[in-house]
TrEMBL record:
The gene is aat. GO terms for cellular component: cytoplasm. SUPFAM superfamilies: Acyl-CoA N-acyltransferases (Nat) (SSF55729). The keyword Transferase applies. Keywords: Acyltransferase, Cytoplasm, Transferase. It comes from Paraglaciecola psychrophila 170. GO terms for biological process: protein catabolic process. The keyword Repeat does not apply. InterPro entries: Acyl_CoA_acyltransferase, Leu/Phe-tRNA_Trfase, Leu/Phe-tRNA_Trfase_C. It comes from the Bacteria. This is Leucyl/phenylalanyl-tRNA--protein transferase.
Length: 120
């Protein structure tokens, strides 16, 4: 699985949002991009709320590009606390069909430091 994600990243399909405290990775998330759809794979934290900061940054970045949703795969209490909602299958498939055919600006996924205050 690790090699598959490395390969997908090299191809420009897998991306991560990382939260660092000085030189220590304290949280983040990663997933796959299909058009303007971020398909989340996993989130983690070593510091309180670090994964939430990663999600906030991801949402802000996606909103700035007119992306309309994140595919979280399955709702759970943690994701629900961040605003995740379930949508009917037909609605999801319609949204997926539309958003997966769109593209982001060229350099959106370049390595960058995001300032979450810009999204608040």
């Amino acid at each position: 699985m690790l090699n598959a994600y490395k390969h997908l990243h090299q191809l420009g399909h897998a991306h991560s949002v990382e939260v660092w405290s000085e030189d220590v990775l304290v949280g983040g998330l990663y997933g796959i991009i299909v058009g303007k759809v971020f398909c989340g794979e996993s989130m983690f934290h070593k510091a309180t709320n670090a994964s939430k900061l990663a999600m906030l940054s991801l949402v802000g970045l996606l909103k700035s590009q007119a992306a309309e949703f994140i595919d979280c795969q399955m709702q759970n209490p943690h994701l629900a606390s961040l605003g995740c909602i379930e949508v009917p299958r037909a609605q999801f498939l319609s949204m997926l069909a539309e958003q997966s055919q769109q593209t982001f600006e060229y350099d959106v996924w370049r390595p960058q430091t995001l300032n979450i205050s810009q999204w608040l």
